[in-house]
Amino acid sequence: MGIGCWRNPLLLLIALVLSAKLGHFQRWEGFQQKPMSKKNMNSTLNFIQSYNNASNDTYLYRVQKLIRSQMQLTTGVEYIVTVKIGWTKCKRNDMSNSSCPLQSKKLRKSLICESLIYTVPWINYFQLWNNSCLDAEHVGRNLG
Question: Which residues form the signal peptide (predicted)?
Answer without folding.
Answer: 1-25
